[in-house]
What does this fold into?
Amino acid sequence: MPSKTDSRLLPLFSQLVGHFAHEPAWWPIHTHDRVFEVTIGMVLVQQTRWEQVEAAVLRLLNAGYTSFDALAHADPIQIGSLCKPCAFYMRKGEALVRLAQRICTTHNQMHAILTLPRHECRRILLSLPQIGRESADTIMLYGGSHPLFIVDAYARRFLHRTGIYRDVVDVINADYDLVQRIVEEDVGQLDVQNARELHAMMVEVCIHHCSATRPRCTQSGAWRRFVDVRKCAEHCPPCSGCPTQSVCAYHLTRIPLTE
It folds into this structure.
C-alpha cells in the first residue's frame, strides 16, 4: 500500500482495500491477449453493466474472435448479435469491427503503441474510433501498464460524496484532465498494481455501497451476479456498511445528490 502522509485520498484507499481486499479476478482475462480484451471491453461497457459486458466478451471469444485481425474480418451483424444484451449492441458490433479494421490497417502495432510515452500513447488511442478519454486511459492502465488515475463516473461520484477535494475542485463537473491531475498530485507516484487497485476499489465501493441512487452507507453491500464466479466472492457476504461512512461527507451531512 502506498503511503503519503499529506494525501487526502490514500487513507480512504487503505480503508477500501481493508474492506474489499485484493481480488485477482477483478478484471477477468480469458486469453493471453490482455490488450485485445481490455479494448473490446471498453467499447462494450459504454452505458452497460459489466456483467453483460463480461458475458458478451466470452461469447465473442468462444466464437473465435480472439484478435483484432479476426474481428476486422467479421460480419458486423454477427458481432452485434454476440454483443446482445449490451446497450446498442448492433451499433457496438459495427463499432468493434470498424475499430479492429482501423487498428489492423493504420495502427497495426497496438501493443507497440502502448509502450509509447503516456501523452503520445493517449494521442494515438484517441484518434481511433469509439475510444474516448476514459476508454483510452483504461486501455493504457490495464492493457499497457501506464500508472494513471482514471476519472470515470464511479471516481467522480466517490470523490464528490466524500468531499475530500471540495475546496479545490468540483469533481462532478470539472474537466477530466484537471481532476486527474489533482488526484495524481495528491496520491503521488503509484506503481501499476496500486494504480489498478485504486481504480478497482472506486468501482467496487460504488457498485456495492456508493450507488448512484439509494446509497447503502450503513447497509450490507449490494450483491451482483457476474459470469466469473470468483468475482466478489470474498467480500459479498453481509457487512456493516461502506468502509468510508465515518468520514464520508454525504453520509455525515446527507448532502443532496447533484449527479
About this structure: Residues 89-105 form the longest helix (17 residues).
